[in-house]
Amino acid sequence: MRPSKRQPDQLRPVTLERGVARYAEGSCLVSFGETKVLCAASLEERGPPWLRGTGKGWVTAEYAMLPRATHERTRREVNSGKPSGRTQEIQRLIGRSLRAVVDLHAFGERQIVVDCDVIQADGGTRTAAITGAWVALNDCFAWMMSRSIISINPLKDHVAAISCGIYRDMPVLDLDYAEDSTAETDANFVITGKGGIVEVQGTAEGKPFSEEEFLSLLRLARGGVEELVGLQKQTIA
After folding, report:
1. Which pTM was predicted?
2. Cβ contacts of residue 16 below 8 Å, gap of 6+?
3. In what residue span(s) does the Exoribonuclease phosphorolytic domain sit (predicted)?
4. Is 68 annotated as a binding residue?
């Protein structure tokens, strides 16, 4: 039995709330159970210097965790002078995931930065961030279309992410902290609405996992992402 009493293929309660940041061009407060992440998309009229003259835009992300997002206060990374390796890895993952479903030529030499701030962490912060960031990015593009900055939505597809793992020898979907901290295997899957795999991150904490176990996790992830994409569609409808 899972600590949360969920079925192996059952997501935590997921909510996507749009328009929560008044000044951002697009925003979404995403909740995966007790994990809550505020995603805000900001339009910048100038793109990165290395893309100047290419006619190509850029989508990137920044990720941070509030000091009391966890059980004990964590020091703000700004005070240490640079983001941690984990933070850099996560924000690059979010950026890659979003760019995988965006036509970067469709909005000119501009940049959109999606800030993902973890308000409360209970496992799966990066997967929640990717799922909510897509909604914020969609609303940013809608804002641009409403002002005739662009004529079409550059988003080519949905993208969402979910964690899976092997907990007490059982493949399970959407690990919370109680499971994540003791799971034998932990994996994150980023998958598009059409089923394309953007990225897989998988780690065995103890014994290596088999190909059969990996495929069982992939099946769970596909089902979970299908649910998340359905929620994204309902949210922006």
Report:
1. 0.96
2. 28, 29, 30, 131, 132, 135, 231, 232, 235
3. 10-140, 159-222
4. no
